[in-house]
Amino acid sequence: MRKILFLVVFLGLGLAQSEGAKVYSANCQTCHQANGQGLPGAFPPLTHLDKVVQAKGGRAYLIRVVLYGLQGPLTVGGKTFNGVMPPFRQLKDREVAAVLNHVLAVFAKSKAKPFTPEEVKAQRARAFSPQKALKSRPPVK
């Protein structure tokens, strides 16, 4: 009986979603899809973000994207996307950090240090438009 109880608890914990996964599912998945591959011609994939986060200014840029959205042409993997990503300023600082950590770990397979709520708070204190957020994107190869 004890083994069965342990197995049920263990499996239940394994199925529990992280906060980042929950935020992604509720706010990002519709456009970027459950697998982070996006929709061709409409919404870019998120699998390349390790290159972005490693670039100078990349961490701040990714936070700005979530907080302020994006508007204007964006080239990812040789393909241009020209849509609008809405801002998600309603998310708490810890939720923004969690969703970025989820995306980087799961889709980009990044080993970048985790984002913190303090980093998000620092970017939230600055005013950016979706167009200005896009212009702050670091060059990536």
- Please state the structural category: mainly alpha
**Percent in strands:** 5-15%
The helix-strand sequence is HHHHHEEEEHHH
Silhouette? globular
Would you identify the regions where 5 or more consecutive residues have pLDDT less than 50?
A: 5-15
- The helix count comes to 8
Rounded mean pLDDT is 90
Mind summarizing the main beta sheet?
2 strands, antiparallel
Distance between the termini: 56 Å
Helical coverage, percent range: 40-55%
Return Rg in Å. 17 Å
Care to count the β-strands? 4
Strand order of the largest sheet: 1-4
Can you walk through the features of this model?
The protein has 141 residues and is mostly helical. A two-stranded antiparallel sheet has the order 1-4. Helix 2 crosses helix 6 and helix 6 crosses helix 7. The relative contact order is 0.19. It is built from 8 helices and 4 strands.
How are the SSEs placed, and which strands pair?
Elements: H1 2-15, H2 19-27, H3 29-32, H4 49-54, H5 58-68, E1 70-71, E2 74-76, E3 79-81, E4 84-85, H6 93-106, H7 117-124, H8 130-135
Antiparallel strand pairs: 1-4, 2-3
Helix pairs in contact: 2-6, 5-7, 6-7
